[in-house]
């Protein structure tokens, strides 16, 4: 099978998702390619071991047709069996032009519908829903990663026959992923509760909420930030916190192991990988009560679900945490990962979708 993945943004969850697919498809003997935005991809150094075809994306309306034609010509030149496009813009570039003449199957993963965003107006939301409904007819299959995405697709009146719900799974790591490690880490507990925030410093991720908790948290609560600003601006990085900047994808397990708990107060997500990465390391998570996040956390079992999004509430939750609670939640988090979010079942389901698409062609 000859497969091409088409992406725009190549960082964070989308990059990790596609990387897992690529490595699995190579192990199955597939021929795999990646079409990626040159400006986005150059900031990521991970070695995929496949040919990378670069294009230049654009958010300008006047440029969309030209970018779409460029992507179409690149796909046409490769003569592939399956095109898997990831996120809204790459989904538009691929599907706005009919690929029926190329006889390839089109798989689309939205990685959070644009209409789910909390910071857009009513008319823009209606437009996004209309656009996705029209483009859905040029998709052989749409892979949703959460029940929230399924429900949003229903509101957009996307045909149910196009939709498949497949929760994402991630591969295990070789260290820091068992009960003995969790207990050993906590035996070295020095009285400081280390809280990790991993990701972009923006409104979607709830960064504005966390940056205001400095004066509200106890002296023994230490908040570590792993990431940086992408679109928004942060005037000053408060000395109340510890700032690490961006870390490579391969370093995430190491730094998560250094935390006692991971904080994810996002306002919306397609299906965040950060909770899975934390649970894989035996670290509990504190998540918002928004979007798909409550689908992976049972409050009080493998993590905590915030009942409101405010600096005061987040600070209160952190101040009330104990070492014993972190140990208990972390053990359960590892168990949830092992039973539900390992990569094997996820990858087999994706492979079945590809084969089904080819069978129906």
Brief overview:
By secondary structure, the chain is of the alpha/beta class. It is built from 13 helices and 13 strands.
Protein model, in words:
This protein has 361 residues and is an alpha/beta fold. The protein folds into 2 domains: 2-170 and 343-359, 3-Layer(aba) Sandwich (Rossmann fold), CATH 3.40.50; 179-341, 3-Layer(aba) Sandwich (Rossmann fold). It contains 13 helices and 13 strands. The protein has helices at 12-27, 38-41, 61-78, 88-95, 122-136, 147-155, 179-187, 207-210, 252-257, 274-280, 311-320, 323-341, 343-359; strands at residues 2-6, 31-37, 52-55, 82-86, 105-109, 141-144, 163-165, 193-198, 221-226, 242-245, 261-264, 284-287, 303-305. The strands form 2 sheets. A 7-stranded parallel β-sheet has the order 3-2-1-4-5-6-7, with helices on both faces. Strands 10-9-8-11-12-13 form a 6-stranded parallel β-sheet. β8, α8 and β9 (221-226) form a beta-alpha-beta unit. α1 (12-27) packs across α13, α7 runs antiparallel to α12 (323-341) and α10 packs across α12. It is globular, with a radius of gyration of 21 Å. The two termini are 14 Å apart.
CATH homologous superfamily placement of the largest domain? Glycogen Phosphorylase B
CATH class of the largest domain: Alpha Beta
Outline the biggest β-sheet: 7 strands, parallel
Mean pLDDT: 89
- Helix/sheet category: alpha/beta
Indicate the CATH topology of the largest domain: Rossmann fold
Whole-angstrom Rg: 21 Å
Uncertain runs with pLDDT below 50, 5 residues or more? Answer: none
Overall spatial form: globular
Secondary structure tally, helices: 13
Distance between the termini: 14 Å
> Which strand order do you get reading across the main beta sheet?
3-2-1-4-5-6-7
Name the helicity range.
Answer: 25-40%
Q: Identify the CATH architecture of the largest domain.
A: 3-Layer(aba) Sandwich
Q: Which sequence of SSEs, written as H and E, runs from N to C? A: EHEHEHEHEHEHEHEHEEHEHEEHHH
């Amino acid at each position: 099978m000859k497969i091409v993945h088409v992406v725009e943004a190549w960082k964070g969850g989308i990059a990790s998702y596609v990387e897992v697919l690529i490595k699995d498809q190579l192990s199955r003997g597939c021929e795999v390619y990646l079409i990626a935005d040159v400006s986005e991809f150059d900031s990521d150094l991970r070695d995929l071991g496949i040919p990378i075809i670069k294009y230049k994306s654009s958010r300008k309306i006047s440029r969309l047709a030209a970018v779409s034609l460029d992507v179409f010509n690149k796909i046409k030149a490769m003569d592939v069996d399956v095109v898997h496009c990831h996120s809204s813009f790459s989904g538009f570039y691929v599907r706005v032009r009919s690929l029926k003449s190329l006889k390839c199957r089109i798989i689309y993963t939205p990685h959070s519908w644009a209409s789910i965003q909390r910071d857009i107006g009513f008319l823009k939301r209606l437009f996004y829903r209309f656009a996705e409904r029209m483009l859905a007819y040029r998709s052989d299959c749409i892979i949703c990663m959460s029940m929230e995405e399924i429900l949003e697709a229903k509101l957009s009146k996307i045909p149910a026959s196009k939709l498949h719900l497949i929760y994402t799974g991630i591969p295990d790591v070789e260290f820091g992923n068992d009960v003995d490690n969790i207990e050993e880490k906590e035996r070295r507990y020095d009285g400081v509760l280390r809280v990790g925030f991993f990701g972009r410093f923006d409104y979607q991720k709830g960064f504005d909420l966390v940056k205001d908790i400095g004066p509200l948290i106890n002296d023994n609560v230490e908040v570590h930030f792993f990431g940086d600003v992408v679109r928004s601006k942060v005037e000053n990085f408060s000395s109340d916190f510890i700032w690490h900047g961006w870390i490579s994808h391969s370093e995430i397990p190491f730094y998560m192991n250094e935390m006692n708990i991971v904080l994810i107060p996002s306002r919306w997500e397609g299906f965040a990988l950060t909770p899975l990465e934390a649970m894989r390391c035996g670290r509990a998570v504190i998540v918002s009560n928004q979007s798909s996040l409550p689908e992976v956390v049972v409050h009080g079992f493998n993590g905590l679900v915030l009942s409101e999004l405010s600096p005061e509430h987040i600070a209160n939750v952190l101040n009330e945490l104990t070492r014993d609670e972190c140990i208990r939640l972390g053990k359960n988090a590892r168990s949830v990962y092992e039973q539900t979010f390992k990569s094997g079942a996820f990858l087999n389901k994706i492979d079945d979708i590809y084969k089904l698409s080819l069978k129906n062609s």
